[in-house]
Amino acid sequence: MLAKRIIPCLDVRDGKVVKGVNFEGIKEVGDPVECACEYNKQGADEIVFYDITASHEGRGVMLDVVRNTAKKVFVPLTVGGGIKTVDDIRETLRAGADKVSVNSQAVQNPQLIKDGADIFGSQCICVGVDAKAIGENKWTVFINGGRIDMKMDLIDWVKKCEQLGAGEICLNSIDTDGVRGGFDLPMLKAVVDAVKIPVIASGGAGKLGDFAEAFLETDCSAALAASLFHFHELTVGQVKEDCRSKGIIVR
Amino acid sequence: MIAIIDYGAGNIFSVKNALDHLGVESKLTDKKEDLIAADEIILPGVGAFPWAMNMLKNSGLVDTIKEQAKVKPFLGICLGMQLLFEKSFEFEECDGLGLIMGRVDKITDPGLVIPHMGWNKLEYNKEVPIFKGLGNDEYVYFVHSYKAFCESEDNLYAYSEYGSKVPAVVGDNGFVYGCQFHPEKSGETGLKILRNFAELV
């Protein structure tokens, strides 16, 4: 049986791990390669680096982070943030990433999903989606780290991503991100039901039971969290132990 | 020395990184003489079957691969494993290397999330040297939408359950091995399998 995945995410700026709340109030908290190694030891099923650097120099630093991590950590690595072109995807994969996560860029240029999937395979194109509720069972897609409302229906968008060849959706709820009250289960359910590709739950994990709850209440394939793991409140191992005790299959 | 065949398919650096980490000498190559000189050969691969088979043909390596796979340990990974079979039906009917009897076709079990992406448990069907030191609770990392159908159970060394049996490790009972999962991305379990493969010589 396929195991449910627990994925720690590292937000990286200029080669340093940082963490903000509700996309704001950012602070620096560590070295990404060391953090990735630590998560690997804890049993992380994948590791995501999210590059929040705007500058060109920062991108180079990010690729070095991936290169150095790929020599030490032998689980899948995903890089998101700032990937705008097929060349960016190629460069990131060549540095040692197994997948790229495209978000705002995919909304503005959906062809990027199709081109990426055609050239490198669907398996390496994860589409990150930031969404917010605008009514009961109705959500709209945001870009630029939750700053711009595209007034685009979430369900239409994830279906389109799948059609274009996305291999996976990483669904981040702006409403629950940083609030630490658990994942956004209604939004998650709606997206899992709408597509056949794997869906990663993101945004809102605040305590041990939140991960198992997402797996028990929805058919999501994986759950992602950043600060919870980063501030050593929980280890990946503890989360997996909790899931296992509730009958969820984890590695 | 292990020759890693570089025919333009992805993930070759990951395989090299893992072998470097294990202290096993390896070389990325698209040259016949390197395959002939190597102690062992790895055929990696990510992407579509017809495209990959075309790239292999264009590189002029197909005959050399078939010959060398009879005389030294040979490991196909992911799409590289699928290429070992006789035929694939990905997009169009396409001949493979024909080193293992069987075909490659879409995973069709209803209700499954596709691709089969993530960590799944190895269920052993046969005792072979590359499983040395592995326990009964070993998970490996898969990502694929097509799977192999072995003509004979004899070629199925291990499988995972995903709707039905998904061949995870196959072989020709000789030098040829194939892993549907990515050993180079399967943590300690994958590294053990790669080390076992390296120690076949």
UniProtKB/TrEMBL annotation, chain A:
Keywords: Amino-acid biosynthesis, Cytoplasm, Histidine biosynthesis, Lyase. Pfam families: His_biosynth. It is found in: Cytoplasm. Pathway: Amino-acid biosynthesis; L-histidine biosynthesis; L-histidine from 5-phospho-alpha-D-ribose 1-diphosphate: step 5/9. InterPro entries: Aldolase_TIM (IPR013785), His_biosynth (IPR006062), HisF (IPR004651), IGPS_HisA/HisF (IPR050064), RibuloseP-bd_barrel (IPR011060). The keyword Cell wall biogenesis/degradation does not apply. The active site is at D11, D130. One of its GO terms (cellular component) is cytoplasm. It catalyses: 5-[(5-phospho-1-deoxy-D-ribulos-1-ylimino)methylamino]-1-(5-phospho-beta-D-ribosyl)imidazole-4-carboxamide + L-glutamine = D-erythro-1-(imidazol-4-yl)glycerol 3-phosphate + 5-amino-1-(5-phospho-beta-D-ribosyl)imidazole-4-carboxamide + L-glutamate + H(+). Its main location: cytoplasm. One of its GO terms (molecular function) is imidazoleglycerol-phosphate synthase activity. Its EC number is 4.3.2.10. It comes from the Bacteria. GO terms for biological process: L-histidine biosynthetic process. Belongs to the HisA/HisF family. IGPS catalyzes the conversion of PRFAR and glutamine to IGP, AICAR and glutamate. The HisF subunit catalyzes the cyclization activity that produces IGP and AICAR from PRFAR using the ammonia provided by the HisH subunit. NCBIfam families: hisF. This is Imidazole glycerol phosphate synthase subunit HisF. It comes from Ruminococcus albus.
Automatic annotation (TrEMBL), chain B:
The lineage of its organism: Bacteria, Bacillati, Bacillota, Clostridia, Eubacteriales. SUPFAM superfamilies: Class I glutamine amidotransferase-like. The keyword Iron-sulfur does not apply. Keywords: Amino-acid biosynthesis, Cytoplasm, Glutamine amidotransferase, Histidine biosynthesis, Hydrolase, Lyase, Transferase. It comes from the Bacteria. It comes from Ruminococcus albus. This is Imidazole glycerol phosphate synthase subunit HisH. Heterodimer of HisH and HisF. One of its GO terms (cellular component) is cytoplasm. IGPS catalyzes the conversion of PRFAR and glutamine to IGP, AICAR and glutamate. The HisH subunit catalyzes the hydrolysis of glutamine to glutamate and ammonia as part of the synthesis of IGP and AICAR. The resulting ammonia molecule is channeled to the active site of HisF. Its EC number is 4.3.2.10, 3.5.1.2. It catalyses: L-glutamine + H2O = L-glutamate + NH4(+); 5-[(5-phospho-1-deoxy-D-ribulos-1-ylimino)methylamino]-1-(5-phospho-beta-D-ribosyl)imidazole-4-carboxamide + L-glutamine = D-erythro-1-(imidazol-4-yl)glycerol 3-phosphate + 5-amino-1-(5-phospho-beta-D-ribosyl)imidazole-4-carboxamide + L-glutamate + H(+). HAMAP family: HisH (MF_00278). Residues 4-197 form the Glutamine amidotransferase domain. PANTHER family: IMIDAZOLE GLYCEROL PHOSPHATE SYNTHASE SUBUNIT HISH. The active site is at C78 (nucleophile), H182, E184. PROSITE patterns: GATASE_TYPE_1. The keyword Hydrolase applies. GO terms for biological process: L-histidine biosynthetic process. Pathway: Amino-acid biosynthesis; L-histidine biosynthesis; L-histidine from 5-phospho-alpha-D-ribose 1-diphosphate: step 5/9. InterPro entries: Class_I_gatase-like, GATASE, Imidazole-glycPsynth_HisH. It is found in: Cytoplasm. One of its GO terms (molecular function) is imidazoleglycerol-phosphate synthase activity.
